[in-house]
Amino acid sequence: MWVGTFHGLAHRLLKAHWRDVGLPENFQILDSDDQLRLVKRVMRALELDEQRWPPRQAQWWINAQKDEGLRSAHIQESGDGQLATMLRVYREYEASCDRLGVIDFAELLLRALELWRHHPQVLAHYQERFQHVLVDEFQDTNAVQYAWLRLLAGSVCRVTAVGDDDQSIYGWRGAKVENILSYGRDFEATHTVRLEQNYRSTSNILKAANAVIEKNPDRLGKKLWTDSGDGEMVALYAAFNEHDEARYIADRLHQWVHDGQRRDEAAILYRSNAQSRVLEAALLQAEIPYRIYGGQRFYERLEIKNALAYLRLMLNVDDDTAFERVINIPARGIGERTQDTIRQTARGSNATLWGACVELIATNGLPGRAKNAVAGFLSLIEDMSLGSDTLKLIEQAETAIERSGLIDLYRREKGERGLARVENLEELVAACGNFQPEHAEQPTLPQFLDQVALDAGDRQADEDQDAVQLMTLHSAKGLEFPLVFLAGMEENLFPHKMSLDEPGRLEEERRLAYVGITRAMQKLYLTFAECRSIYGSESYNSVSRFVRDIPSDVLEEVRLQNTITRPTSYAAGALSSDLGDDTGFALGQLVCHPMYGEGVILNFEGHGPRARVHVQFEEVGTKILILDSARLSAV
DNA sequence: AAGGCAAATGTTTTT
DNA sequence: CATTTGCCTT
């Protein structure tokens, strides 16, 4: 069997048929970071103003076209100036990629599609080879993947597609839910099996999920049910700020472990990666082991990419992407000016950057100092690669980070950061030591580099340790956990404010909420923070609309002491529930806050300095504050 | 060309 | 806030 992502399989195909699709044998994959660099360079060459034409936007646009299967040649140039400019960039970018022998993620799929379109005999081979195809998460396939699949299926091979339109959360990168509908039309003799009985979650959790997703129009329509019983209520915790939220989650996890449950059966899910920092800090403090998926991936880290660039240069000095990346890292006196000269020479002589350097040295095309520096770099690379092909992979990696001066550079970098980078480099060496491809005797550098390119997966060292799982909602799709926390259930964060203006985006956020809720098997906690720091300044958000959509008979609001109260109403009864015994304040007292001004104390929760106090302010309405951090004073 | 400092800028989600 | 950019001096 071939098992893998569309990208992974495409890569495998292109490796086997590089000749047919016009790629060099050792083509390199551009990750989005490399891609952005290249787009930037292309745009500079076109002398486009970076302010007026943000390179990120161009990158985005190009990828969007490729996801639709459109090359620059396919796109009609209209009078639109915006489009015309993007198209120019696209053309130049395509040319640069071809020249460099590199392909980006979208190109991987597009080339694989073209391989089959233009080479019927290759297609026939694979149609014969694969009698059955199973596609999971079918709602996340894009136009190119769908076309590719149709070709593969032909009229012989049987395709089973498994998908859920309510879990389509990758529209922003070109995924087409419509593929689910097209499937019945485009493939031979299909029939549909609807799976509505859910064997994962309790009835209460499903009710919550159904209530949230029901608000979406244009669904294919389904309603999950289970016969496994109501289970526990969905819990909602209103935190004062993100630290309070994290502390609460850590607290519940502590209890969970105390009750004899496994940590790796619990997950904390969030909308954006930035939220993980605070959660990590709280878990660290509570001494709860955790593991983060996603975020900055190991092989995408600056220091790792630099080390890999040296390795690639040792293999092939004409690798321009790698060359450009590390020619002046660590700093060796080859600045912007000199690099420009090298690039221009390369362009003029139709040579690689390495070739241009050789030429410039021979023709004295550089000022003395620059010439020495460049010559120094060339001989460094030559020395490093000399005889390195007889070394073991791990020794090659050691050479790359030691002799290049990379490791010393990061050793000198002060603070936690430098330390982490050195550790990462050491981890890279270790990874080389452990690398063992499927049926290879002796692992080689090219194999390692290939594996790294796509499978940028970050296996953290202690994989077997029992640890709480942290990840974004996107990475959680397809997984399940007995205990789930959805953190940051706030307007502007989830649904994210970026998704509010464009049509259709809110629906996608809603599906994301549906995905999140349905990850939970037994117990689901929703948490939100009334106040959260974003970019260093505080912002106040109301509870997410998705929470408000959950019917109150499956939702209970939980408080610090784990007491259950009805959603915030400050009736007379509530006022007498707690006396501000040791807080130094009393109910109804007039107080002053440095930011909110004067207000009246309405309620207390908890005791001592960690107590939460509800204050009705004259200016800004009711706020819930933690006593020891709120700096309240009596008036 | 390098390194230091101040100012500006940005963050959704991923192969 | 944290990182990147721009501007300055050496």
Cα-to-Cα separation, first versus last residue: 75 Å
- Count of the separate structural domains: 4
The share of residues in helices is: 40-55%
Biggest sheet details:
8 strands, mixed
Please report which band the strand proportion falls in: under 5%, 5-15%, 15-25%, 25-35%, 35-45% or over 45%: 5-15%
Spans with pLDDT under 50 lasting ≥5 residues? Answer: 561-581
**Tally of separate helices:** 25
Using the alpha-carbon principal axes, give the shape: globular
Q: How would you classify the helix and strand content by structural class?
A: alpha/beta
- The CATH class name of the largest domain reads Alpha Beta
Mean of residue pLDDT values: 85
Number of E-state strands: 17
CATH architecture of the largest domain: 3-Layer(aba) Sandwich
CATH superfamily of the largest domain: P-loop containing nucleotide triphosphate hydrolases
Describe the structure.
It contains 25 helices and 17 strands. The chain has 4 domains: 6-186, Orthogonal Bundle (Arc Repressor Mutant, subunit A); 207-297 and 460-567, Rossmann fold, CATH 3.40.50; 300-410, PCRA, domain 4, CATH 1.10.486; 577-634, Beta Barrel (Thrombin, subunit H). The N and C termini lie far apart (75 Å). With 635 residues, the protein is an alpha/beta fold. The strands form 4 sheets. Strands 5, 6, 7, 8, 9, 10, 11 and 12 form an 8-stranded mixed beta sheet that branches. Strands 16-15-14-13-17 form a 5-stranded antiparallel beta sheet.
